Each structure stands twice: as structure tokens, then as C-alpha cells.
């Protein structure tokens, strides 16, 4: 434990220092010297501080320490004269933890110092324990994030193995989701909703939007032609399959992890339409969860721009005109507006990852 004794009286400094010979002590004759010592010896635990000093008085020292967070752990006992009650109150209000009056009562001062050093030791122990807990929490958080990401990649891998989706479709939709969200958050209506944390969840869970398709038979899923009415009804079940795959009876609504909630909203609502003609619930307007409204336009855009077993790739102009035409019908008009504002940047994502796919196949 290090104790700094600050007093312009050499006699008082000597008396206090001799009383504390079993501690590591430093001395200063005024506030300026004290601040220089603190700068070079940052691990001081306790300061015994006279208030009435030349150059820089005790009040100024306390205020300087208060203004610098790295010195907030130094406990200060102020020394006052017997009739300086106002100074005692002022010093305590500024941040001192205790006071002792002059002429010094050595026994009283020693008891108070011992008490505050014990409190400081307890404080240090709490800080060390908190650091260990923070480290453990950080480690567990990283493990949970890794587990989440591995699980998502494994689930998406099932789609890729069955040739339901390409790896580049996953990359494109994630990058478009990020770009669209980052753009929308600049707008007043989204700035408080699309936080950095929420955007990260949306981007991370985007690849799961069609995970339920693993439950659809190949003769329907990979059919090169148009689906019959009966086949289409079976295909629509992929939404419920995906939601059920993510739901877990171990969690109630209050304790379900937020990223699972986001994933369920993406999976369960990305085929809803703004005018209420979508599925599975026929939700209307903003009753459709935001992740579903975002995923709807991203998924349709990428589907139109990409070749599928049942259709060729359509051009960018056709795709943009389709999105414009479906504003207020299939898509949320506000999201369409934001999408169109960055359509050229989105096209660059499509071009980049289609080219990479061609290179991989070459």
C-alpha cells in the first residue's frame, strides 16, 4: 500500500511519516509537488492532504484528481484546522472520504488510515474479481457466438449440399442486407431501430431465410418447370418447417435469445406481402416484422437476378422495374425507396459475386 502525505508543514509530514513507517510513504510540500508525484507514481492508494497550502491548495488537488478518471481510486483524507468546518464539508463534497483536524491526534489518524486502507484492499479485491468475471463472460460470449455461427453455417450447408442455394447467394444476400440496413439507419424512422447490434443480427441470420426448404421433396424443390397448385402449397410449407427448426421448447418468449427471435422473424415473414396477400399468415403492412420486410425485397431481387432451375436470370433493369411496380403491394414502400437509392451499389454486389462463382466453376 502506498500513502502520499501532502502538507506544507515539515513537522506534520515528519510526524505522519514516522507514524506510518510500516507503510510505503511518499511526501510532498504542496499541491504542485503532489500532482507531479501522482503522475510518476500512479499506484498511490491513499492521500493525506492538507487543505491550506501555497502554490496549489488541497481543494485544487482534489478537483484535479476528480477531473481525471485514472486517479479516481485514490482515497483522500483531508487535514483541516479545528475551526474549519466549512472547509471539511467542501472537501468531502469534492470527493474526500474522511477528514482529521489539526493539531493531529495521532492515534485517531492511524485508526482512520487503517480503516481506509482495509476498505481500499476490499475495493481492489472486488475489482480483481470483476475483471475475472468479465474475462469469463467474454470467453463464454465468444464461445456462444462461435457456436451460433457454426450452427448457422451447418444449417446453410444443408441447403448448399442439396443444390438448393449456392454459396454466393448466401454471401450476396448478407452483403445486401448489411448495405440496405446501413443506408436505412440514416433515415429518421430507422435510426433508433437499426442499431449496430441489430444490423449484425440481421446479417448473421439472413442465410437462414430458406432453411425450411430442406424439408421439401426434391421433385418439387428442384422441379425445372412451373409448380402445380398442389406442389406450390407443399412448397409454402418451407416457412413453417424453418420456424419449427429454430423454435426450442426450452425457451419461453421472454428468455429466447434475440438472434433466434430475429432469425424466426426472417424465416417466418419473408414471404409475407405488404398488401396482405402473402403467406403463411397474410400479415399486412408494418404488422409484418421488419426482418421479414427487409428479407422479402432482398430475396426477390437476388432470385430475379440469378439463374434458377425453373427460370433464367433476368436483367437488372427488369428487376428494378418489378420492385418499383410491387412497392406497396409485395414490398414496404419505405424500404423500396431506400433500396432504389442504393441500387447501383447493390448491383455491384451482384456483379462481383456472380463473377466469383464463374471463376470457381471454370
Automatic annotation (TrEMBL):
Tell me a GO biological process for this protein.
phosphorelay signal transduction system
What region holds the HD-GYP domain? 144-355
The answer to whether the entry has keyword Phosphoprotein is yes
- Name of the protein: Stage 0 sporulation protein A homolog
PANTHER family registered for this protein in UniProt: CYCLIC DI-GMP PHOSPHODIESTERASE TM_0186-RELATED, CYCLIC DI-GMP PHOSPHODIESTERASE VC_1348-RELATED
**What organism, scientifically named, is this protein from?**
Proteiniborus ethanoligenes
Pfam families reported in the protein's UniProt record:
HD_5, Response_reg
Q: Which InterPro entries match?
A: CheY-like_superfamily (IPR011006), Cyclic_di-GMP/3'3'-cGAMP_PDE (IPR052020), HD/PDEase_dom (IPR003607), HD_GYP_dom (IPR037522), Sig_transdc_resp-reg_receiver (IPR001789)
Residues that bear 4-aspartylphosphate: 50
Lineage top rank: taxon: Bacteria
Q: Does this entry carry the keyword Phosphoprotein?
A: yes
Q: Which residues form a coiled coil?
A: none
Amino acid at each position: 500500500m502506498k500513502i502520499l502525505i501532502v502538507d506544507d508543514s515539515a513537522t506534520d509530514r515528519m510526524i505522519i511519516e514516522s507514524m506510518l513507517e510500516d507503510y510505503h510513504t511518499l511526501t510532498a510540500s504542496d499541491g504542485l509537488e503532489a500532482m507531479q508525484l501522482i503522475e510518476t507514481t500512479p499506484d498511490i492508494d491513499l492521500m493525506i492532504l492538507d487543505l491550506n497550502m501555497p502554490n496549489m491548495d488541497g481543494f485544487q488537488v482534489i478537483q484535479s484528481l476528480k477531473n481525471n478518471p485514472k486517479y479516481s481510486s485514490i482515497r483522500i483524507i483531508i487535514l483541516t484546522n479545528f475551526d474549519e468546518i466549512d472547509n471539511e464539508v467542501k472537501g468531502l463534497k469534492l470527493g474526500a472520504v474522511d477528514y482529521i483536524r489539526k493539531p493531529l491526534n495521532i492515534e485517531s489518524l492511524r485508526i482512520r488510515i487503517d480503516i481506509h486502507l482495509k476498505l481500499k484492499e476490499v475495493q481492489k479485491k472486488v475489482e480483481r474479481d470483476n475483471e475475472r468475471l468479465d474475462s469469463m463472460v467474454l470467453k463464454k460470449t465468444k464461445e456462444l457466438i462461435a457456436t451460433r455461427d457454426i450452427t448457422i453455417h451447418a444449417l446453410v450447408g444443408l441447403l448448399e449440399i442439396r443444390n438448393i442455394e449456392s454459396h454466393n447467394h448466401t454471401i450476396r444476400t448478407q452483403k445486401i442486407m448489411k448495405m440496405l440496413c446501413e443506408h436505412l439507419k440514416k433515415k429518421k424512422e430507422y435510426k433508433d431501430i437499426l442499431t449496430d447490434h441489430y444490423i449484425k443480427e440481421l446479417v448473421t441470420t439472413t442465410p437462414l431465410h430458406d432453411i425450411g426448404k430442406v424439408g421439401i421433396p426434391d421433385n418439387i424443390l428442384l422441379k425445372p418447370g412451373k409448380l402445380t397448385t398442389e406442389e406450390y402449397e407443399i412448397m409454402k410449407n418451407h416457412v413453417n418447417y424453418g420456424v419449427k427448426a429454430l423454435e426450442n421448447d426450452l425457451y419461453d418468449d421472454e428468455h429466447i435469445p434475440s438472434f433466434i427471435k430475429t432469425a424466426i422473424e426472417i424465416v417466418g415473414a419473408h414471404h409475407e406481402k405488404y398488401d396482405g396477400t402473402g403467406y403463411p399468415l397474410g400479415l399486412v403492412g408494418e404488422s409484418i416484422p421488419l426482418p421479414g420486410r427487409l428479407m422479402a425485397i432482398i430475396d426477390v431481387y437476388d432470385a430475379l437476378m440469378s439463374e434458377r432451375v425453373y427460370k433464367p436470370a433476368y436483367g437488372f433493369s427488369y428487376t428494378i422495374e418489378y420492385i418499383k411496380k410491387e412497392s406497396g403491394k409485395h414490398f414496404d414502400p419505405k424500404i423500396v425507396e431506400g433500396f432504389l437509392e442504393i441500387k447501383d451499389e447493390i448491383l455491384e454486389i451482384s456483379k462481383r459475386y456472380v463473377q466469383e462463382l464463374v471463376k470457381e466453376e471454370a
